[in-house]
Amino acid sequence: MSRIYSLAYLTSNTCTPPQSIRLAAQLGYTSVGLRLMPNVAGAPHQFLINKPEVLRETVTAQRETGVGVFDLEIIRIGAHFAERAYLPLFEAGAALQAKAVLVAGDDTDEVRLADGYARLCELMQPYGLTADLEFMPWTGVPDVKAALRIIKAAGRPANAGLLVDALHFDRSSTTLDDIRTIPRELLHYAQICDAPTRAQTGRAFTVEEMIHAARCERLLPGEGGIDVGGLFDALPHDLPVSVEVVHLERMAQLGQAEWARQCLVVSRSCLEPQPELDAGVRRAPSF
Asked: CATH assignment of 5-282?
């Protein structure tokens, strides 16, 4: 079965929103992910909110290429979460016809986190966006079980979602059996990458190491030790795949377009192996 691939923000983080869309079209991605709000104050992101000229250029790129905007980043739910602060993000999402927003749960009080998530879902619903809660082992949502508890406690909103990232799957306590328990209606997309594993390094990763790998140094599928094939076999085979393979050093060496191209080629060969192709094309490139 042919899958749908989206060019994630981290894989194209040197691009403006319209550049990202045109690059995706050039390389064969169906859609893109955009980070229109920073993951922490002052961090890099793509400038579009409150910039009508960039929005117009982005919509024009969508119309001319047929490439859509799949997901937007990022909402973080902390102890003092104010969901209305994200209204400009939702308005941009509606204008771009985006489908999902990535949500991180930073609040370690699950009751309060679930309340914030419920309020967020309610506010987002008129904009046609799903709120995809991503589990990350250093946050208040460390694994699949925690994400499911929070979504249930929030009243299972109609636009609730649960985002699976291959990196966080491996570095959390989540198992393939846990992945198989996720209700299909909560799954809207999943993120693919690879990385060294605890079995390979012989020790657990520190929080700092996990964050660094997530934001700066992911590997192409097949280069690390994550059971990427097993993970995506456990997920629905028609689930859109966000190709999120950031490696800042390699991106600088190869250039944005070549790196994004290799990420798609290797991700596709990992999930859709074709024996008739030359093995050298299907393997992850050596660097």
From this structure: 3.20.20.150
